Amino acid sequence: MTRTKIALFAIPILATIMVVATIPPVFAPGFEVEIDVKPGSDPNSVNTNSKGVLPVAILGSEIFDVTQIDQSSIFAYTTSVDFIFDAWVTFPLRCSVEDVNGDGILDLNCKFSKEELMIDCWTNGIIVSGTLVSSGISFAGSDTIRPVPCEEDF
């Protein structure tokens, strides 16, 4: 599996953010989509000590048809609560079209390697991005996660 490292540095004093990376061109979304980490789970607790896969669904809607997504363009990365952090852009191991939330609308359920996402106690969310097949328009969506076991006060 290919990963691309991105380093984001937030400098509060200067109120600037510098991005140093090789990032796929769909990094800036054309529109926002709804995603659900661990569909059906709330909160989205993720064991930082376990390996395996993390399901992340890109939710379809009456106006968003997930079958129009270019599955080869999908990638994910984590967000963090600290000011200086590194994130790995990773690609899904596999995706399937199914209705994960029971609303009668198809969703795209993707499985990401937890090891490649490098989730730790500072991780607070996941962002998924990609493009549409016909238009090449990009999209992105985010959801929060709760890493466990971690101390609550860090």
CATH class: Mainly Beta
Q: What portion of residues belong to β-strands?
A: over 45%
Question: Which percent bin holds the helix content?
Answer: under 10%
Element-level helix/strand string: EEEEEEEEEEHEEE
Describe the largest sheet. 4 strands, mixed
Q: Report the oligomer.
A: single chain
So how many helices?
Answer: 1
**What's the total count of β strands?**
13
CATH architectural designation: Sandwich
Output the strand order for the largest sheet. Answer: 3-12-11-7
Mean pLDDT: 81
C-alpha Rg, in Å? 16 Å
How many angstroms separate the termini?
Answer: 32 Å
Q: Which ranges are low-confidence, i.e. pLDDT below 50, for 5 or more consecutive residues? A: 1-28
Number of separate structural domains: 1
Structural class label: mainly beta
Secondary-structure blueprint:
Layout: E1 4-11, E2 16-21, E3 31-32, E4 35-37, E5 45-47, E6 53-58, E7 69-80, E8 84-89, E9 94-98, E10 107-113, H1 114-117, E11 123-132, E12 138-144, E13 146-148
Parallel strand pairs: 3-12, 5-13
Antiparallel strand pairs: 1-2, 1-8, 4-6, 6-10, 7-11, 9-10, 11-12
